[in-house]
Amino acid sequence: MPGSNLLSAPHRAGFFSGSVVLLAAMAWWAWVIVLRLTGVSVASPIPPAWLHADLMIFGFFPLFMLGFINTAGPKWLNVAAPAKVHWVGSIALYALGSVLVALAALLPPLQVAGDALHVVAWAFAVWIWADRIRASAVADRRHAWLVLAAFVLALPALAFQLAASLYPATVYTALWVQCAIQIGIWAFLLPVFLIVSHRMVPFFSASVLQPYQAWRPFWLLYAWLLLALAHAGLSLVSWFAPRINSGITDLVFAGLLLYASYRWCLRRSFKVPLLAMLHAAFLWAGIALALYAAQGRAASVGLYAGGLAPLHALTIGFFCCTLLGFVTRVSLGHSGRPLAITRVTWVLYWLMHAVALARLAGEFFPHAATLWFSMAAVLALLTVATWGWRYVPMYWQARADGQPG
């Protein structure tokens, strides 16, 4: 039965619900931006940019993470999977919260209920992952512990988001939103993406590129994580002291990320398109931090340019392209299909890169900014919808090879 298949493995439930929320978030934002292009503004007590941040940071990424970590995590730790009632409960509660936040575009009071469910569900998910780590006897659990630390840091970000939706018209609301955004991106999302990339990209590369020397020193990962936290801290401090920025630390960060792309053999990865999807997406992390560094340097001499270009290089370029790569790979492998993508999937993947470029172009060509933003939003919606048409049915279908899971 389709329903039973959907709950037969964590990745099925997490990826299905994440895909639904992702599509809803992209559809709503495309509608908002295209209306702006026609000169119409959306009237809402919730500033659209704030709801956009809530959905894009906390709406769908955590659902994909829960599907992935509850499927792959026990294999990392050589332990049994979490009890079904636990992972189903955490994913279902979080997904319900995300649906309510998405519906807040129509009924604003629902945002409070959705954000509250996010806090409760995520605390439950943190407990589940901590329990699996404690049950493990594997000697090296560093990646697992670091993921747990990032998951824990998501809780204050979610709490700030809840405070902002509970009290939307105080003198502190904008600060709470900024805390949610900065902590959510730099202490939660970026660390998780970097930790998983550090573990999996060299591993996948070594399995298909021969000869290949897997290179993933932990000093590099620790440096990345410290620099991400430094960016979060400096960004929040700059709220009170605008002259302070993270330009120098971002420059070091960019150098380490770009060096990792080189050491992981970005160019060789294109021999296997499914692998290249991960490598090319990771390159955006270095590009984004280089843009942040350049922007910080320019700001220190009184020049302000680029707007939100670095942010969207990170969130669309790195996060969304990586999401497309990892979720495609897991969906194929765990549905009993060959680990090879079709030409359509390859084109869709590069269209997501085009989305990132279009969104950046809007920051550097302000005279046509709304047009570029509209192109990016509509292209993102079409890309996600087409990808979903191909891959989402896999989550309720039986495995192609007849195996369980």
UniProtKB/TrEMBL annotation:
Record InterPro entries: NnrS
Keyword annotations from UniProtKB, A to Z: Membrane, Transmembrane, Transmembrane helix
Record flagged with keyword Membrane: yes
Pfam family, one: NnrS
Stretches that traverse the bilayer: 12-35, 55-73, 85-106, 112-130, 142-163, 175-197, 218-241, 247-265, 272-293, 313-332, 344-362, 368-389
Organism of provenance: Silvimonas iriomotensis
Name of the molecule in the record: NnrS family protein
Top-level taxon in the UniProt lineage: Bacteria
